[in-house]
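Structure tokens please, single chain.
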Amino acid sequence: MAIPRPRGRAAAVYRIYDRAGALLYVGMTTNPTSRLQAHQERSDWWPLAVSLRTEWHDTREAAEQAEARAIRSERPQANRKLNSRQFRYRSRRFHATRLHPLAWAHFGERPFSFPDVVEELGVPASTATQYGNALVEAGMFQKVGRWKAGNGYTRTYYRAVDPEECANEESLSDPDPGRPTTP
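Here you go.
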């Protein structure tokens, strides 16, 4: 997707939102099209992104200042730079609490295995397994059977329960007790 640059504007501050309208990321760039492509290829939160808002600035410096203000005041979920949340996570990681809505949106009623979650959604393997098992215990993923996958290995398959049918997933704890949770 090409994002046109308004005449006389040097840099943009962009905000990326998830389906619920929660702010995922704030960034600054002189080339939004290539920057968004980089996020798509490398950002673990990208599968959650559904909308984008850009604001153009006359100078790169003005855009950098606007970006810093936005990150500090709006506290986007995925930003590490200038965000007080950066000290809460030991490494780049997928927000485990997003696994159920992401699986529901992507797979719907279609059966999937945890390796499918890793391959198709880009979720880290440890998160898919640990939090996936917690979702099974909570009744948000239901086991539907075991079949041989294309690689010859037998996999357990699940289906995501419709969010309308399941209990509040916010009550689930993060599978990594060594990491404080986000307030």
